[in-house]
Amino acid sequence: LAAESGARLCAIIHYLVRGQLGWFGLTIACLVPGYAAQLLSILWFRADGHTPGCWLLALHLLQLGLWKRYWDVLRAVAEAGGGAGEVLAQLGDVCVLRLLEALLQTLPHLLLQAYVVVAVDPAGFIPGVSAGLSLLSLAWALVSYSHFTCLLKPGHLSPPAAVLLCLLLWRTGMLGTRVLALVLFARLYSFWVFAVAGAHWLLMSFWLGAQQTDIVAQPCRWRLFNCLLGAVYIFCYINVRPGPSKTRVAVFYAVSTWNVLYSTWM
């Protein structure tokens, strides 16, 4: 996470020094959606009975709120009185918030820097490093979320390091190929990439609505949740329903394969 943030800052400085104000502005704009995770973190602090002080608000304003939560998890583990339930609750909060931040902030930054490397500046070292670290950070956020959901299941222990490494490699390869395919398509066909991605998004959103997921109760928020998750499904699969998911994963990859074939035919 520190390496990704440092590389993003270097990319911002890189564009500013070279006078590429367009890419500089777009890179800055990718930071704005991350405040959704920071706002949700403050609301959760308040719901847990912690009144946010000025220093806590300042940390979230600087987008360091998740760093504070990671520190709280480490401190709870180190303290002898920290119970397993308390640690698991804090770990769940930070995993969900980090996944939200990665999808809203890291993923757009990854797409932008990958497009710069492929279509604008193939020899750009700093954008390439920033894109690579963003890819790893996004993959690790997905792995951390999967790790947490595994810990929630009764009788399940923490997966060994080899399993987490395999999950990280799988997520990195899957995300990397999808991002590269979209960037190459955008380079060749320009705005037609939005038509292909939009068709995929609509299919996934309607499919999620047909599953009747009960993770959100209110109808309006339920529709908004399905639309947002449908956009995420362009890049990766996230299981939001309990029970076996083999059929849902098969449908997801079938639609993804159709999308790739349709893009190639166009």
Automatic annotation (TrEMBL):
It is a multi-pass membrane protein. It comes from the Eukaryota. It holds the Pfam family XK-related. It is found in: Cell membrane; Membrane. The keyword Transmembrane helix applies. The chain crosses the membrane at residues 21-44, 114-142, 162-184, 191-210, 222-240. One of its GO terms (cellular component) is plasma membrane. Belongs to the XK family. PANTHER family: XK-RELATED PROTEIN, XK-RELATED PROTEIN 5. This is XK-related protein. It comes from Toxostoma redivivum.
